[in-house]
Amino acid sequence: xxxxxxxxxxxxxxxxxxxxxxxxxxxxxxxxxxxxxxxxxxxxxxxxxxxxxxxxxxxxxxxxxxxxxxxxxxxxxxxxxxxxxxxxxxxxxxxxxxxxxxxxxxxxxxxxxxxxxxxxxxxxxxxxxxxxxxxxxxxxxxxxxxxxxxxxxxxxxxxxxxxxxxxxxxxxxxxxxxxxxxxxxxxxxxxxxxxxxxxxxxxxxxxxxxxxxxxxxxxxxxxxxxxxxxxxxxxxxxxxxxxxxxxxxxxxxxxxxxxxxxxxxxxxxxxxxxxxxxxxxxxxxxxxxxxxxxxxxxxxxxxxxxxxxxxxxxxxxxxxxxxxxxxxxxxxxxxxxxxxxxxxxxxxxxxxxxxxxxxxxxxxxxxxxxxxxxxxxxxxxxxxxxxxxxxxxxxxxxxxxxxxxxxxxxxxxxxxxxxxxxxxxxxxxxxxxxxxxxxxxxxxxxxxxxxxxxxxxxxxxxxxxxxxxxxxxxxxxxxxxxxxxxxxxxxxxxxxxxxxxxxxxxxxxxxxxxxxxxxxxxxxxxxxxxxxxxxxxxxxxxxxxxxxxxxxxxxxxxxxxxxxxxxxxxxxx
Length: 573
Ligand code: AMP
What we know:
The chain is an alpha+beta fold. It is 38% helix and 21% strand.
């Protein structure tokens, strides 16, 4: 397909904020995509591979600037200048390509196949000369692009497509395009997307007219699926009211999520962001082999750190380095051991468990896991209708250094990727949030050269936009010290953020929402200073959350709730 057709679609979809209109526009476009071109669906989402695949485009703004400079024959300083003026690198590419077009008439026709071919080479490049190779792949595309194509190519490269098309938009458009009963179709399609975690392959089935094939799709071991997420319960009464009585109540462990796949002798571990971390946890592989029965399965769990000597559980921050570190694994395993707490099962011995009620799933776990404390256990759980018993269990969880409890509806199915109302989390009257950094300010004096204050944003769940809610500068160290301390310095945090800088004006920087941090605060206030309408009082940085994506952060709705709850507390003491 011609890339110009896709660019035209991006433009149309980006020009309306109305969801139904987007669906309509997309539905027309889906009809035009040829059967063999299902991969265009990835491009619609600004991606090049299915969600379960770890390969991402990953081009920094800096490299994009270099490429625009080369392709349009503009000095890098000139591109930077335009960027500061316009604030959108895509638009800069559009403008400069327009200018160049007037000077030369040479242009190859760009197809979506060619764009994908080049973009897909990017993630696998390694070693010497990588930057040059990447640059030449990008420049090749940009020199063939017309202005509007250049705009969307650059936005795709830096991961900021800005057309408001999500997986659910495509799902709903497919329902409109290929089915008569839209509501029924959405359910069917969601099930197919959950099982494949690859919306393009679902599209392909529809396009070839073999709709019946949707019914036989199955989960595939080794291909991670999105994990189910929880909503918040205000208190024990609220928890019971929302998930029903009796329900399962479990410890909410303060660790990180591990989705564990086993197929005969092969075991693969994924984080909640579906990154493969198998190599980082050799001991977990061993526990799975020894203490979990079954030829093939997918189980869902939380790994928690503990102190080998005192046997006390440790907070997540103290073990977070185990997720990323790729060297000294044995040493780290010795120093920062983890216990795996299994709380769900998604697939067992050839059969999907997605549609089995939680009560059945948890029963199965009880049968197949041999509890070995400090290695692997079935998450601590009670099944009860009694508030007093629940309260006792909650206090015990806190006493054991865990975050709180989870309420689980015993009839509920497993819904990948959804924040569902039949699994609730309850933590102490908490004052902490997970937020994403969307900006910063350069410091002065001894802090000059790096960002010393960071703008934090939450997510507006109704629009998907990130809204600012405050600035944080405390809880971060002046200097990086030697040793395995996980605390981060201004310098280190700035370097982590630098690849995502979108725009620099004077001392302030706009940053692409990528890096998620945990922040504590004393109070939420109404505030006209931030576009969320709220501000945090005394925010303090507590940890990086590399295991969380910007889609997982605290939502405006949750913050409003916290704010309301806080008011009630003031009122009633
Ligand atoms: P939050 O990260 O605050 O949204 O809380 C939800 C997270 O709690 C899940 O994504 C899991 O990583 C974690 N978790 C800990 N214990 C459990 C449990 N027993 N059941 C489900 N999730 C749990």
